[in-house]
Design goal:
There is one protein chain. With 381 residues, this protein is α/β, with parallel strands linked by helices. The protein folds into two domains: 245 residues, FAD/NAD(P)-binding domain; 117 residues, FAD/NAD(P)-binding domain (3-Layer(bba) Sandwich). The protein has nine helices and 20 strands. The structure holds flavin-adenine dinucleotide. It comes from Parapedobacter koreensis. One of its GO terms (molecular function) is monooxygenase activity. Keywords: Oxidoreductase. It holds the Pfam family Pyr_redox_3.
Length: 381
């Protein structure tokens, strides 16, 4: 790394070979992978604290993918971002809370001596010839390679229809205990919506879930498009007394004020009234929207080549849940971590490193997914 004072703007000028933006599981896992592939000249810039997304989860939220200390037998914990690490082991839990996962990420940063700079928000990115110039409040970072891993949680899809501003997006709820009222309407019946209903039911509140498709009926095996078995099981175990009502094939068109301070939720065929602000469980956009002009976009997803590099801007890589190839969606940690090795390998080979040993290691641990045909739905029983 090289540091100078930029005379014109009075900002420090810092030069690295690679900059990673975002210190969530994707940014941290990418940092470990770069080191494993022999790339050491990099920094991770994080606008908040390490794992800050998980500190924003509602208090009641837990991981739905289970963690298990299977590492000893060569099976990586589903929520691990680096080989020989395990959130189950670091927390003693199977379904971690947000803060417990942050503890794990901090352990990884410590063990692998990752150069994370917290409270460094990247405000702009410009490509100048071969280099990227990233601006933070007090510095310019210049880098040949940029890995964008800013996730999606901090970019909620909170304006999906007119009147959405009258609702509250589930990512902005600190704790379900803080919500006033006994009767709630949740718009969206995938993981976040059902999780909200289950948590509210545990507090004795009634909920209606309005879902444009179906909640339970999907034939898909892929938890990226259908409710996980963990959540289905929890929903199956509820009874009528829990007061969760599913309104399937119900698409919300707009929300307006109703009578007596209520909220009117309009669908194609009528309306529902909710005494409390409707809860939006309508998902997230991608953090790469912050630098959207550096990507071509297809169907709301950034276009990437076989190394997860932008097809528009060479040497710009995307890591995390918005990576998608053909129909394969990488929105869980156990999925997107399998691309860390691909990106690290690409950068390392361009820098002339010998990567054979690292590729073998990553393949052995299912962390080097270069053949997407393995992700088809072929579970026999
Ligand atoms: C309620 C809920 C439950 C979930 N449960 C599971 C589960 O059980 N299993 C699973 O695999 N996945 C789960 N997920 C998804 C998982 O949390 C995400 O896939 C994961 O957090 C993505 O990691 P990331 O590092 O890409 O993004 P994030 O964790 O969001 O990290 C991105 C980081 O980038 C930083 N950042 C953003 N913009 C900038 C900027 N301009 N400059 C600097 N830093 C910036 C942010 O502060 C943040 O720390 C869940 C998600 C939610 C919402």
């Amino acid at each position: 790394m090289d540091t100078k004072k930029s005379s014109k703007q009075q900002k420090t000028l810092k030069t690295y070979r690679t900059v990673i933006v975002g210190a969530g599981p994707a940014g941290i896992g990418m940092g470990v992978a770069l080191k494993d592939f022999g790339v050491y000249d990099f920094v991770i810039l994080e606008k908040g604290l390490i794992g800050s997304t998980f500190l924003k989860w509602t208090t009641e939220t837990r991981f739905l993918t289970p963690s298990f200390q299977s590492t000893q037998f060569g099976l990586l914990d589903l929520n691990a971002v680096a080989i020989n690490t395990s959130p189950a082991y670091s927390s003693g839990k199977e379904h971690l809370s947000g803060p417990e996962y942050v503890h794990y990420l901090n352990r990884v940063v410590y063990e692998f001596q990752l150069p994370v700079h917290e409270e460094r928000e990247v405000m702009t990115v410009v490509k100048r010839d071969r280099d990227f110039v990233l601006e933070t409040v007090d510095a310019y970072y210049v880098a040949e390679y940029l890995i964008w891993s800013t996730g999606e949680f901090q970019f909620p899809n909170d304006r999906p229809f007119p009147g959405a501003e009258l609702c509250i997006h589930n990512s902005r709820i600190g704790s379900y205990r803080d919500l006033l009222g006994d009767d709630f309407t949740i718009i969206g019946g995938y993981e976040s919506g059902v999780d909200a209903a289950l948590n509210l039911a545990m507090l004795g509140r009634e909920t209606a879930i309005l879902e444009r498709g179906t909640v339970m009926d999907s034939k898909s095996q892929d938890p990226s498009v259908t409710l996980s078995f963990y959540t289905k099981q929890r929903l199956d175990e509820t009874t009528a007394a829990d007061g969760i009502r599913l309104e399937e094939r119900t698409e919300v068109k707009k929300v307006t004020h109703g009578g007596n301070g209520a909220f009117r939720i309009h669908t194609g065929s009528g309306y529902y009234e909710s005494p409390t602000p409707p809860i939006l469980a309508t998902g997230f956009k991608g953090g790469e929207e912050q630098i959207h002009d550096l990507f071509y976009n297809t169907g709301g997803r950034p276009q990437l080549n076989e190394w997860d590099e932008s097809t528009r801007t060479p040497n710009l890589y995307l890591a995390g849940p918005h990576v998608m190839h053909q129909n394969v969606i990488f929105c869980f940690i156990y999925k997107f971590r399998q691309r860390f090795g691909i990106v690290a390998h690409r950068i390392a080979t361009q820098l002339g490193m010998d990567t054979d040993a690292a590729v073998k290691l990553y393949r052995r641990h299912n962390m080097f997914l270069d053949d997407l045909s393995c992700c088809q739905e072929d579970c026999k029983c």
